[in-house]
Design goal:
Largest sheet: 2 strands, antiparallel
Number of strands: 6
Shape: elongated
Structural class: mainly alpha
Order of helices and strands: HHHHHHEEHEHEHHEHHEHHHHHHH
Helix content: 55-70%
Radius of gyration: 31 Å
Amino acid sequence: MEKMWSGRFSANASSLLDEFNASIMYDRELYIEDIEGSLAHAAMLAKQEIITTEELRDITNGLNQIIKEIESGKFEWNISDEDLHMAIEKRLTALIGDAGKKLHTGRSRNDQVAVDFRRWTLKKNLTIIKAIKKLMKEILVVANKHTDTLIPGMTHLQHAQPTNFGFHLGAYLAMFKRDIQRFESSHKRNNISPLGCAALAGTPHNLDRDMTAKLLGFDSVSINCLDTVSDRDFALEILFNISTMMMHISRLSEELVMWSSYEFGFVELSDEYSTGSSIMPQKKNPDVPELLRGKTGRVYGSLMGLLTVMKGLPLAYNKDTQEDKEGVFDAVKTTEISLEILKETIKTMEIKTHNMESACAVGHLAATDLADYLVEKCNIAFREAHFITGHAVARSEELKIDLSDIEFAELKKIDERINEDVMEFLVLRNSMNARTSAGGTATVRTIEQLKYFENYLKD
């Protein structure tokens, strides 16, 4: 079959090259962006009197018919057409004749694919932002119910200080807010039009790039055509943004896996979002968070793949850049389902508050409070207070109790300067609520933080 570019060649491409060279199997994902770009380009060509109004009418009618054919499943995708651009142009020419051949005036596949892929990616930035916000709203529902529910705050996965569960979930809200900001920033930075750059150096045709930019929803046109046709920063950015967001999802997923184990018992995932074992009838496996951890590695691979493709490319366009789309398509699809299923998993899980609070009575979570008491009430330097508190913890270990359960008489033996008012400092809920500094875990501060995120999502 004759190629659009075959005029310079005396022999047909081999079928093996057709298979190796083609991107049509996956880049047809961009069909609506491609046709919208062509409609805008045709409108501009007519305004600039490069094509006639009759030719514009035929092109417009033909492209709209192709949309119907694609969406009804009647359009024939042929690997010999290489990519969706050629497939659509060939079909357009078959439908309307020579007018279809004029559509490519002042345009190259280089700026054409840059327009298509950039617009698709920009749309997905916004789609992902909406999905993150839905997830955040579901986390807020759970967090608002547990601003007074004690849970052990940990460092090094060791019990550290008492916090509340709403505060803990608020940490993930902060992460996801940063994710949204990254997607928003990328959208703003990359919302520029490549159309009219042609192959690499612009075109002698009297194009109106500002017109096509406006028609396609871009904020402006690109500055340098040589850069524009080979730029894939927008694709790298969405992959980086996705990777960072999925890292946050993976951290939450890791905690869900731990919390749902018998060792923790802090949550129970619903039957809807759990699976069983093929051999052990008692098992209820946290497959959703486990898969989310795994899929995080998958999107990392897409980011590293495209970075590697781009790292050694001379200007301008190179065929290597054809490898830009599959990883992005896969990462976006993975992200969309990951956000949705995590939202539903959180919505349907059971919170076991008793187990959370019971866990706070292990690991001497009030130790820092005892040290703070010695500093505040006994005027003891913190380093000495730290040493005294260590003795109190050691004594609690000997007695096989938690520091929060130690009797005043035992503390008095350790240091005579300790008075009975120390006992209020060792109450775990008092300890949590004592942390009233900005951003702290006290219930009053947690409620403030959650209200901040609620207002952010409203805005």
